[in-house]
Write a structure and sequence with these properties.
This protein has eleven helices and no strands. By secondary structure, the protein is mostly helical. It has helices at about 1-20, 25-40, 50-55, 55-70, 80, 85-120, 130-155, 155-165, 165-180, 180-210, 215-250.
Length: about 250
């Protein structure tokens, strides 16, 4: 157990150090990711390109991975370097993105009845107090349904791009790699998530003391601060992804 805790702690530490190496550019990449994958789907008219964004998600992942690989080697990343992916691997990454798209549609179909139920509950004043129970249930179900695709895509984009793995081999190897270190990966992820939530709590508390609820300008600064924290957290997850790949697949890394 001590070895597992040490490994998780080491991964988190290395991920945070890597995230801070070029913090301004890291935040920029994290902010672009937020805009593409969190904000665009909510904008009327632009939400139509959401399926395309899901398809190119493995390529977006490799932009982050390329970035962290470059800065770890003390290299200044350029746009061409971030987008450096062989054509044959782009095809495999696109197929992987299509799998992600169909799987996300499947999750949507499975959760659709639950979402309809929670809307019905929200409109019923007699049972509104139970809405949180429905919400927690949907979140738990979503997490359980998302686990297989997360395991399949945690390492597969990297294995396709850096080691020319075929799509099926990359997915199988990704599953095997995650299963091999599932406990330290989960612990490290929980630590990163806990740190992010704690940081948000501190930010909100500070701005609440400063009167953000009564000052429009302060409330905008609060939102901006939370978005910066989210951008850093998202970037740290990609950094964590790269660190775990380097450790678990070190035997095949040249």
């Amino acid at each position: 157990m001590k070895n597992i805790l040490n490994k998780s702690h080491l991964w988190v530490t290395q991920s945070l150090i890597l995230t801070k190496l070029n913090f301004k550019l890291t935040l920029l990449l994290g902010s672009v990711y937020i805009f593409a994958y969190l904000l665009i789907p909510t904008i009327p008219g632009l939400s139509l390109i959401s399926p395309f964004l899901i398809i190119v998600w493995p390529i977006s992942t490799m932009i982050f991975i390329n970035y962290f690989k470059l800065i770890q080697n003390s290299k200044q990343p350029g746009l061409k370097d971030l987008l450096k992916i062989d054509k044959q691997n782009i095809r495999a990454l696109t197929y992987l993105g299509l799998i992600c798209l169909f799987y996300s549609l499947l999750i949507s179909l499975i959760l659709s009845p639950d979402l309809k139920n929670i809307l019905a509950v929200a409109n019923d004043s007699d049972v509104k107090e139970n809405i949180s129970n429905y919400g927690v249930g949907i979140i738990i179900k979503f997490i359980i349904l998302a686990i297989p695709i997360l395991m399949a895509t945690w390492f597969s984009p990297i294995l396709i791009t850096y080691h020319n793995f075929g799509l099926v081999k990359a997915i199988k190897s990704s599953f095997a790699g995650v299963l091999l270190s599932i406990i330290p990966i989960l612990l490290a992820w929980i630590i990163l998530l806990g740190g992010f939530i704690s940081l948000l709590f501190v930010i909100i508390m500070i701005f609440s003391i400063l009167g953000a609820s009564e000052n429009i300008l302060m409330s905008y600064v609060l939102i901006f601060s939370c978005m910066i924290a989210l951008a850093a957290y998202i970037a740290s997850l990609f950094s964590f992804q790269f660190i775990t790949y380097k450790d678990i697949f070190k035997s095949i890394i040249k």
